[in-house]
Backbone:
């Protein structure tokens, strides 16, 4: 038995209020004969949403308030039903339709002029999602030859940034797909390595963001290291093109922080007396809606020189709304007033960098709920997928051993980290783009 795809369960906050997410529900139920029974309580909400967004909206994802078409979730349900009929172990499943929507929305930012969107190769396993990125986005960011070799075979007109703490052995290995190449220098040692390379090569200098964000970074050159930067902006026949600022995933990665990074980079270029052709703001962008992202990009463009091209790597937003995970309940244990559901899906082995949301059936407001903690099958104390309030119409445990559970908000990074551990195999990684199709 698999629970229908209707809305996310309430995640119970432990020490981070950001995880307290209100449930989101479909405004209708889909019957077996594919007819829809509308939830009258939601009609006023839907009408208000249409008026606010000026578009036809029948469903709101919890993520950044962006609309998701009901038909897409009907296809997800069909896919989950197919999986349930022949379950072979834990699975990470990515909707190409939803990934395509995310990428086309991000690509639309190019309309502002001088804005380019990249995909970090580490953000997803090679395959169909990379092909979508090559179609909709401006290029990729890679760390080494291994990542580059997994990119689509033809990247004419695309840009590939090489950004890594270890300087590549041969830069020629990053141009075999007819792409443009920009190398990011992380240190004086990398500058000296580039100086020994026959050129010319376009390059950027990575600026440290430690003083701007609430995190200590071991990457990049401090913006205040004027003498070092002055030396690095000239490198023989190679062409300095701009700066690269990058931040890991953090709650300090606010719109204001990114604008401050851009302002600092522009100021550094002015002090050095050089043209800022490129500014790559890297990744870590994960808490902004598309509307907020558009506003942020506009604000950044206003603090940069008119001719500066802005690059960024959205990372999680490319796949988060498109990623789902399925696991089977192997045991149910009552611990005090909390039920532990032990599933064959591991947060440590299969869901790294994901904050999974349990998907549960629609329930009327005020319906009884039961608190459950969903844990993985390994011996690691940290193997916990989350604590959730789930609907329980009779006030009793709604799950049975052998039931399948589905989770949303599974990022592509999880597919890359996906491993076997403690005798458990890696999760299957599949893609789907239609009813019941992997």
Residues:
């Amino acid at each position: 038995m698999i629970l229908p795809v209707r809305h996310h369960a309430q995640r119970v906050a432990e020490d981070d209020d950001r995880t307290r997410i209100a449930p989101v529900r479909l405004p209708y139920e889909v019957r077996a004969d594919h007819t829809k029974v509308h939830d009258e309580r939601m009609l006023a909400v839907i009408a208000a949403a249409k008026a606010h967004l000026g578009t036809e909206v029948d469903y709101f994802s919890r993520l950044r308030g962006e609309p998701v078409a009901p038909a897409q979730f009907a296809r997800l349900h069909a896919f989950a039903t197919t999986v349930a009929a022949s379950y072979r172990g834990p699975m990470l499943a990515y909707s190409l339709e939803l990934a395509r929507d995310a990428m086309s929305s991000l690509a639309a930012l190019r309309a502002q002029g001088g804005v380019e969107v990249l995909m970090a190769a580490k953000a997803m396993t090679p395959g169909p999602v990379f092909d979508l990125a090559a179609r909709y986005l401006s290029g990729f960011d890679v760390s080494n030859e291994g990542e580059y070799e997994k990119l689509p075979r033809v990247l004419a007109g695309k840009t590939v940034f090489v950004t890594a703490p270890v300087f590549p052995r041969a830069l020629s290995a990053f141009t075999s797909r007819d792409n443009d190449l920009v190398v990011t220098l992380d240190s004086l040692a990398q500058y000296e390595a580039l100086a020994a390379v026959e050129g010319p090569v376009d390059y950027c200098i990575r600026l440290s963001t430690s003083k701007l964000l609430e995190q200590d970074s071991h990457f990049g050159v401090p913006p205040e290291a004027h003498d070092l930067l002055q030396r690095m902006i000239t490198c023989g026949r190679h062409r300095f093109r701009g700066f690269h600022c990058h931040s890991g995933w953090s709650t300090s990665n606010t719109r204001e922080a990114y604008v401050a990074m851009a302002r600092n980079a522009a100021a550094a270029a002015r002090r050095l007396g050089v043209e800022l052709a490129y500014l790559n703001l890297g990744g870590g962008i994960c808490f902004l809606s598309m509307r907020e992202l558009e506003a942020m990009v506009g604000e950044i463009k206003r603090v940069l020189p008119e001719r500066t091209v802005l690059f960024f790597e959205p990372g999680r937003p490319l796949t988060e709304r498109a990623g789902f995970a399925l696991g089977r309940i192997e045991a149910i244990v009552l611990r005090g007033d909390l039920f532990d559901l032990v599933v064959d899906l591991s947060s440590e082995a299969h869901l790294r960098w994901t904050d999974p949301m349990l998907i549960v059936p629609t329930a009327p407001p005020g319906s009884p709920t039961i608190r459950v903690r969903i844990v993985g099958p390994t011996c690691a104390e940290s193997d916990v997928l989350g604590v959730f309030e789930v609907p329980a119409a009779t006030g009793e445990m709604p799950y049975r051993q052998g039931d399948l559970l589905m989770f949303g908000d599974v990022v592509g990074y999880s597919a890359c980290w996906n491993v076997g551990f403690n005798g458990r195999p890696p999760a299957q990684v599949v893609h789907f783009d239609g009813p019941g199709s992997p």
Remarks:
- The first helix runs from residue 40 to 53.
- Confidence is low (pLDDT under 50) at residues 1-7, 13-68.
- Residues 7-94+321-432 form a domain with the Lyase, Ornithine Decarboxylase; Chain A, domain 1 fold (CATH 2.40.37.10).
- Residues 28 and 153 are 43 Å apart (CA to CA).
